[in-house]
């Protein structure tokens, strides 16, 4: 018998114990009834807290009243940085009138040559200024991870206080986890070389957030 066969045999023997079903049920119940640990108190406007935290992580933030105003805000940002007028978008934001702002967008997964990716997000976390994105056929993760510039539309109504609230919202609305959940807190960075922070080391070097809704606070 090989070492591999011996190890797998032990695993099979272990999961085949008579009390396996009971132990599994106890583990599931424990997860379902787990209490929440200490969390910060966040009185006041969650959108403002989210904006301040996001900016502290080197994201930039713009505010629009309506989702329909987002293309113009994106065009203004791209023009200000001389990035161009082409982008890939996730399907959840592809329906916006991008052409009216002279933007050329393609709803597909990002490729190496794409410089700008535009996405929505499942929710924002005010505690840390973090985006929660769910992967799926309509929301490929490459749009937010591969291009040098990532622009995200964040509905103010979907900003929650803590990470625990974000997972609670995910369980309530989706039931089960998607293949991947990505948390984005500003541009990618590294401090590997002489402990000097460098942005864009492993992903986007720019993250621009557009807060959408009447509850947003203008920067």
In short:
The chain has 219 residues and is an alpha/beta fold. It is built from 6 helices and 12 strands.
- Please give the largest β-sheet: 6 strands, parallel
Number of strands: 12
Number of helices: 6
Shape: globular
Helical content stands at 25-40%
Poorly predicted runs are none
Alpha-beta classification: alpha/beta
Span between N and C termini? 67 Å
Helix/strand order, N-terminal first: HHHEHEEEEEHEEHEEEE
Chain-averaged pLDDT:
89
Strand % is: 15-25%
Radius of gyration, rounded? 21 Å
Strands in their spatial order, largest beta sheet? 1-12-7-4-2-3
Description:
With 219 residues, the chain is α/β, with parallel strands linked by helices. The protein contains six helices and twelve strands. The strands form three sheets. It has a six-stranded parallel sheet, sandwiched between helices. Strands 8-5-6-9 form a four-stranded mixed sheet. Strands 10-11 form a two-stranded antiparallel ribbon. β10 (189-190) and β11 form a beta hairpin. The longest helix has 13 residues, at 3-15. It is globular, with a radius of gyration of 21 Å. The model has no long low-confidence stretch (mean pLDDT 89).
């Amino acid at each position: 018998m090989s070492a591999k066969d011996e190890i797998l045999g032990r695993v099979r023997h272990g999961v085949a114990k008579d009390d396996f079903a009971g132990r599994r049920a106890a583990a599931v119940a424990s997860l379902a009834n787990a209490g929440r640990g200490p969390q910060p108190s966040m009185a006041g406007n969650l959108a403002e807290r989210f904006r301040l935290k996001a900016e502290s992580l080197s994201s930039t933030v713009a505010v629009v009243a309506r989702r329909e105003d987002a293309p113009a805000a994106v065009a203004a940002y791209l023009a200000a940085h001389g990035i161009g007028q082409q982008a890939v978008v996730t399907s959840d934001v592809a329906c916006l009138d991008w052409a009216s702002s002279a933007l050329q967008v393609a709803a597909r997964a990002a490729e190496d040559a794409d410089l700008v990716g535009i996405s929505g997000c499942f929710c924002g976390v005010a505690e840390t200024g973090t985006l929660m994105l769910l992967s799926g056929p309509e929301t490929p993760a490459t749009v937010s991870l591969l291009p040098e510039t990532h622009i995200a539309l964040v509905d103010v109504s979907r900003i929650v206080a803590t990470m625990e609230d974000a997972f609670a919202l995910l369980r309530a609305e989706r039931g089960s986890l998607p293949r991947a959940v990505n948390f984005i807190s500003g541009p990618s960075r590294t401090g590997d070389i002489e402990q000097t922070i460098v942005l864009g080391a492993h992903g986007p070097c720019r993250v621009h957030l557009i807060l959408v809704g009447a509850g947003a606070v203008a920067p």
